[in-house]
Amino acid sequence: MRKILQSILVLLIIVKASSAQNFNLELRGEISYPYSCASIWGYVDDDGTEYALVGTYAGVSIVDVSDPDNPQIKFDVPHTPNLWREIKTYGHYAYATNEVGGGLLVIDLSNLPLSVSHSTFSFTDASGALQQDGHTLWIDENGKLYIFGGAYGNGGATIFDLTVNPLNPPYLGKYEQHYIHDGFVRGDTLWASEINDGKLEIVNVSNPLSPVPLGSVSTPNNFTHNSWPTHDNHYAFTTDEVDNSYLTSYDVSDLGNITELDRVQSNPGSGTIIHNVHLLNDQFAWVAYYKDGVTLFDVSHPDNMIQVGAYDTDPQESGGDYGGTWGVYPYLPSGNVIASDLYTFNTNGKLTVLTPNYISASWLQGNVTDALTSGSINNGLVEILTTSQNDQTDLSGVYKTGIGIPGSYTVRFSKVGYVTKEIQNVSLASGVTTQLDVQLFPLASTSVTGTVSDSITNELLADAHIYLRGINVGESYEITTDVNGAFSLSPIYIDDYDIYTGKWGYHEFASPNTELNLTSAPLDLKLSKGYYDDFIVNNNWVVTGTATTGKWERGEPVGTINTDNVVYNPDLDVTNDFGDYCFVTGNGGGSAGFDDVDSGKTTLTSPVMDLTTYEHPVVSFYSWFANGGGSGTPNDTLIVSITDGTTTVKMGNIKFPTSQWIYHEYQVANYLTPNSTMKIIFSSSDLASSGHLVEAAIDKFQVQDGFATGIEDQQLAFNCCSASPNPFSSISTIRFDFGTTSFNDATLNVYSMMGQLMEQHEIHSLSGTMSWGADLADGMYVIKVMIDGQTASIMKMVKARQ
Fold first, then answer.
1. Confidence band, pLDDT 50/70/90 cuts, at residue 3
2. DSSP annotation of 549
3. 10 Å Cβ neighbour count for 465?
4. Any bridge partners for residue 734, and if so which?
5. Torsion of CA 60, 65, 70, 75, to 10 degrees
């Protein structure tokens, strides 16, 4: 299957690129904390000494960073323990919020480096309501303090005057129409990030007693965390604090018509969450991008934002969910940048000091048109190869992209129905916009007709499914035969196609690498009777259940990995079937917990099977099951049942989180008398209150005539084998435990993807470990544990040397 080869290449690219992940940001120093860190701010004393003000679970840590290679903690100011803490400064005072009470922490920094003093500030309104907490805060250039998300004012913005009394500022007013998670204020304008409403709202606060809304815009992920406008209020940038989120730019020059200009991600496809953005000189956007770390974007072209720097403060963390970098502060006079990290599964909270190398982006833009008609080609893909940078052409055929590391690149232009074009040696220079216009030639098309019939009786089959997947063009087609077993497709691009044919009650059939052109004869597709489904075509299995997410769906699986590096959703289907589809519980990608089974059961039921024509029917399939995370021992399951239309009997209880494809087979007569109304049922559940991650998948379902070996049931009873690491760079180790099962002969066999036996190792004990793969080249392999000639375990492994 092509996806296996593609996955190998992608994996190798990732391995090679990992060493280049950090660029234009140099690590200078670090300090680790025994608890989580939150927001960060900077301060410079009268002698020019630079300090990091690090929000921690225990309070605020004051760190001398004037020697960036040797940061030193000077003071730890205690306050109410809390994970969320935001810090800003005014004069020689620092102010820190928390969400659990105890008041606003006020720190007097005027006596640094000798000492600091601190107090707290709480506010009681006219009705007697006490405000002593807040999520975030802002202090504008006029000394006005804004507390956001506090107990007072409906969680909006509460405004105080620090110029009158910095320790006990008087109340000025509030804006309480919406909950405000974070805000930025310049002049008389509040840029309110309303996370619950998913909006950036702009408010006139010249009169704090009566703020006036001026306009708003919904952000892409509808979970607006923070924002930052340019100094002329012409452009604004927002973040959304959810998986797979964006840094987004807007033209806000007309608040009655706010226009989105661009959106960008630091690591597209990873599911990473963006947190905070800070602008520097209206050109560079410093972003805390959680598990991607500190990221730097050139946003001087707001309609074409380009990443120009990165430093992953916690390389062990990746993907969605929370972890890694919380905040970034880029305004120290030295030019050094300070960042704060959450406490995570792998590391403690942390302060990181970085020195940036500011390099302007190298922009690339142009028009893509049809070579014959000169018309614009929209939705065409433009890729700068060997990088993650790509763009889609708009309705006018215009694309805008670029790169953060100048150099010579190959640029690929593609669109379904057109000949792909690659232009080599495109020189991209820092601070320069390169114009590259391209014409693409349309592909020729044809029509295809044919029939599907029974391979023995030649009976024409109505409602048979045909799936054609283009090998070169990349276009796919699906069609169903009519009542006469015939089908017709027009137009269809001339190409070589993998043709898959299926109908429930028949064995699927593949015609690989079939050329379809102007002179192709009608297709005569034959199917033999039997029950076989690897889900490359839709045979109308039924999905039911109460789960809120993670419902069964048919598709090419998208892998997910949890923070403990366990694979939950598979990334590949089984190796020895047609195509690359399977049934999987949720397939949304992102973090492991994004689309797993939650809050109920999801059930997959086969169409009706007539098993009376089999002498000894055996149901077989491959399953994938992963279960972990949450509290306590994982206790979720994948239940396999069979029904005859009246009685339903459980055949198997798959409960070991193997995170690999496992073969199973069941003798039908051991459970029910075979009849003409049989169905197989797969049910996966997320048990209440456990909070565990649950993923399951099913592939290569079939019914055969014979006797089940029983090997797979024994394996399920004790989960005989596992192998790690995967991928591996030198050797991998298999761990096996056969319990009390006796055997005459057991081996570990290693096969190439072409089926060639590459290694064989004898197993002489019931349990233990065995190393393998030292002499193998990079690539993907199938390993099988064989007991007395039967497969006890099968796994796919990848070798990729760094």
1. very low
2. B
3. 21
4. 723, 770
5. -30
CA pair distance 637, 635, nearest whole angstrom: 7
Rounded Cα distance between 678 and 672, Å, is: 9
The answer to whether the Cα torsion of 368, 371, 374, 378 is positive or negative is: negative
The strand order across the sheet containing 349-356 reads 25-33, 349-356, 337-341, 325-329
**Residues, the chain:** 802
- pLDDT of 789 above 70: no
Backbone angles phi, psi at 38, to 5 degrees: -120, -130
Beta bridge partners of 390: 383
Q: Map 379-443 to HEC letters.
A: CCEEEECCCCCEEECCCCCEEEEEECCCEEEEEEEECCCECCEEEEEEEECCCCEEECCEEECEC
Q: Is residue 40 within 8 Å of residue 55, measured between CB atoms?
A: yes
Q: What is the mean pLDDT of the chain?
A: 88
Q: Any bridge partners for residue 11, and if so which?
A: none
Reference 361, options 263, 293, 428; nearest CA is 428
Question: 238: closest CA among 209, 260, 270?
Answer: 260
Distance CA 52, CA 54 (A): 6
| Residue/partner pairs of 155-161 with CB below 8 Å, 24 or more apart | 155/179, 155/180, 156/180, 156/192, 157/183, 157/190, 157/192, 157/203, 157/205, 157/211, 158/123, 158/131, 158/134, 159/205, 159/208, 160/123
Assigned token pair, 113: 């480096």
pLDDT band at 13 (very low <50, low <70, confident <90, very high): very low
Strands across the sheet containing 50-56: 37-44, 50-56, 59-64, 72-78
Cα separation, 142 vs 169, in Å, equals 13
Q: Which of 98-107, 353-362, 694-703, 730-739 has the lowest mean pLDDT?
A: 730-739
**Is the distance from CB of 404 to CB of 364 less than 8 angstroms?**
no
Do residues 596 and 549 lie in contact, with contact meaning Cβ atoms separated by under 8 Å? Answer: yes
Tokens of 379: 């939705």
In the block, residue with structure tokens 């199917």: 527
Contact in structure between 438 and 370 (CB atoms under 8 Å): no
- Among candidate residues 431, 357, 428, the one with its CA nearest the CA of residue 386: 428
Query: Phi-psi bin for 593: left (phi > 0), alpha (psi -120 to 50), beta?
Result: alpha
Residues of 296-315 as b/e, b for ≥16 C-beta within 10 angstroms?
Answer: bbbbbbbebbbbbbbbbbbe
d(CA 573, CA 486): 30
Whether the predicted model's global pTM rises above the 0.90 cut: no
State the virtual CA torsion across 291, 296, 298, 300 in degrees, nearest 10: 100
**Left if phi > 0, otherwise alpha if psi is -120 to 50, otherwise beta: which for 407?**
left
User: What is the distance between the alpha carbons of residues 261 and 299, in angstroms, rounded to a whole number?
Assistant: 11
Structure tokens at 564: 């403990």
Q: Which residues of 528-567 are buried (b: 16+ CB within 10 A; e: fewer)?
A: eeebbbbbbbebebeeebebebbbbbbebbbebbbbeebb
Closest alpha carbon to 578 in 469, 475, 665, 685: 469
**In the structure encoding, which two tokens stand for residue 392, read together?**
């889609």
Distances from the Cα of 11 to the Cα of 15, 411, 566, 781, 801, angstroms:
6, 21, 16, 14, 10
Token reading at 617? 């029917």
Q: Which of 736, 734, 716, 709 is nearest to 724 (CA)?
A: 734
CA–CA dist 14, 20 (Å, integer) = 10
Tell me which amino acid residue 719 is.
N
Is the torsion defined by CA of 557, 561, 562, 568 positive or negative? positive
pLDDT at 69: 98
